Amino acid sequence: MALLELQNLSCGYGEMIAVRELSFAVEAGEVLALLGPNGAGKTSTILAIMGHVQIKTGALSVDGRDITRFPALKRAELGLALVPEGRRLFSDLTVAENLTVGGYSRSRADEKRNLARVFELFPRLAERRSQLSASLSGGEQQMLAIGRALMSMPRLLLVDELSLGLMPRMVDLCIDALRALNKEGLAIVLVEQNTSRALDVADRVCVLASGRNVFTGSSEAARRDVDLLHSYTGVTA
Predict the structure, then answer these.
(1) What would the pLDDT profile of 81-106 be if each residue is shown by its tens digit?
(2) Pairing between β-strand 212-218 and β-strand 80-83 as defined by DSSP bridges
(3) Which residues of 102-133 are buried (b: 16+ CB within 10 A; e: fewer)?
(4) d(C-alpha 226, C-alpha 106), whole Å
(5) FRET pair for 175, CA 20 to 30 Å: which of 34, 93, 145, 191?
(6) What pLDDT shows up at residue 178?
(7) Within 10 Å of residue 73's Cβ, how many Cβ atoms?
(8) Angle 60-199-174 (CA atoms, 0-180°, nearest 5)?
(9) In angstroms, rounded to a whole number, what is the distance separating the alpha carbons of residues 13 and 10?
(10) How far apart are CA 119 and CA 142, in angstroms?
């Protein structure tokens, strides 16, 4: 049984349909890369999974349980967590306070353990725990956004545009962190414009174009399909 499954899911905003009849599954401990050009529906898919974009038709399930009409809070309680595009940190809160907000649903004992784990994963955040998040570099803010999501102890992490606006070295650090988390058993859905990096870390790939699924398969199969990559992601290998 898949950890997460989308079955013919369509979602959108008001009367506009952004994603049409999308189906894919994410197994426990798997990394799925969600790829495609700008406007393909990648972010809408992520937000629909989290309950922030309306699901029009189709079904969404976790562990075989239909959660299509569950509110966002209930989905978080079931183990889903979001690292949003643009980080969306609380700029007037410190690093430690942002992390504490992420773990609001957990006990004090869990909060202490989770803080220690985040600081182990991202030592820079430990050094800057008392700084306002607005004073951090872009890469440090992305680390904080990941750390904040981890504070809820998720089983599935949804990461939207990890590398956006970051220097290559910071992208490497964040990718390495995702690899480490995945080795510990965390499932990840990664939306990423840097196709090569996404293929490096992903087990499987789902490619969207104009709100529809045009390819689902292994990352190796995606690499071999040169026409697919060139047509929908702009790279050739």
Answers:
(1) 999 998 999 999 999 999 999 988 78
(2) unpaired
(3) bbeebeeeebeebbebbbebbebbeebbeebb
(4) 45
(5) 93
(6) 96
(7) 10
(8) 85
(9) 11
(10) 14
